[in-house]
Amino acid sequence: MRIPIIAGNWKMNKTIAEAVELVNAMRDPLLAIPSVEKVVCPPFVALDRVAALIRGTEIGLGAQNMHWEEKGAFTGEVSPLMLQGLCQYVILGHSERRAYFGETDAIVNRKVKAALAHGLTPIVCVGETEAQYDAGETEEVVRRQLEGALDGLTADQVASLVIAYEPVWAIGTGKAATAAQAQQIIGGVARAVLARLYGQATADVVRIQYGGSTNSKNIAEIMAQPDIDGALVGGASLKADEFVAMVRITAEVYSR
User: Tell me: domain 5-254, CATH 3.20.20.70, correct?
Assistant: First the structure.
């Protein structure tokens, strides 16, 4: 049985002091909830302080992005070597990186390979824009992005990563995909792509999250879907009570 994973993507929010306050507010309640993997992904500047607060606990730490090179003349970038030993996860291919910073499937692929080479677990994001959704291109887009991100990886490497399906039209808009829609894309498209490329055994072990306007009100229905293994949470992860509630509800759904 795949262990559900709830990861909070704080994006460009929270100063170091605010990050400390948020983690202190959610740490003990999160630790009291079994059977769900919890991950927080603060901005780069807060990673070290947050790491100190959760060191020795089962709460995981993730970065929101990274470069594929270990070092060099890449002003403003952070390398996998810098993240190695500091955090366990790194979000790659987020739609905001694709839309605002020109990241292509090929760039995401390079980053995924670099993360794996340095012992980091990628959370690989895929998802269609509203225009693509309206044009009926969702399946094609998700299939292309997934194939591009995983190009050249072995089945063992793919089995070790996490995939997040985030329809762009649902991120931060308050209009999440229905549970049935999310299940159709995650189970009928993403997991099917994994099975075709790497075999059913690999497809069966990869955890695939849903992301896009998830909250404590809709998480139960989403987590009840057979192919959805957690959530990549945006705005709701900035509120301790809300994030804890989402993790608790997920644990309850999986214990049924």
Answer: yes
* Active-site option among 103, 128, 166, 242: 166
Catalytic residue among 37, 67, 94, 96: 94
Confidence (pTM): 0.97
Active site residue 166: yes
Q: Give the start-to-end residue ranges of the domains of the chain.
A: 5-254
- Phi/psi at 148 (5° precision): -65, -45
What pLDDT digit, counting tens, does each position of 42-88 carry?
Answer: 999 999 999 999 999 999 999 999 999 999 999 999 999 999 999 99
Do 189 and 148 meet the contact criterion of CB atoms below 8 Å apart? no
Using CA atoms, how far residue 79 sits from 65, 109, 183, 198, in Å, is: 9, 15, 34, 28
Helix (H, G, I), strand (E, B) or coil at 150: coil
